[in-house]
Amino acid sequence: MKNKLIPIDFLKTPIDNSDTIEGLKIFWKKVLPLSSQREQHFADVWKEGTEEEIFAELIFCLFTPQSKAVTCWAAVKTLADKNMIFDSTAEDIANTISGVRFKHNKAKYVVEARDFFTENEKIKIKEKLASFNDIYELRKWLIANVKGIAYKEAGHFLRNIGIGKDLAILDRHILRNLKVYGAIEEFPKNLNVKTYLEIEKKMQGFAKETGIPMSHLDMLFWCKNTGGIFK
Of the residues 28, 92, 154, 159, which has the fewest C-beta atoms closer than 10 A? Predict the structure, then answer.
């Protein structure tokens, strides 16, 4: 598979240690060109991406739990370069994705998702996603039908393909920042569905209050701690 969209770089930014909302707004303005560039990339994935490229984004999000994003994307690129995404067994995939934690389970998820989205020997994921008019219903459908996908991974996937701008991607880094800036009172001990959706609404409210779009807020929290914007 030839992927014109699959290469992606780590956009470096300064690390920011401010813990005030005003400081966060200032930092957002500094990195706005980079976050806008990345947001445009996500939009292009949906607008120009093939069925196979959209599926590659799903694989990335299947790989990310408890693994580094850069490592997971490198694993996806390796599978694509070796033409292993659509023909390989779970065992072969697992043996190829070094650095991805729980790789045997995740390789099985890839094969199961591939089977689920295959019609007449072709991937039809983009077509199915486009049939939904409500992004929240689409997220629920993904969680119900794709093994290995929960709320965080579904939101991450939909954001990365340019159609989930207002969805939260609640990992520990985002949650810690939400607490630092007063969007939530405490770090949740158990992030069940009810708590996840409650915090998502609070994050959406915080985005509206600060004027920083949800689609930028996630990247902003990520880059203020890591010094870069990825995906």
Answer: 92
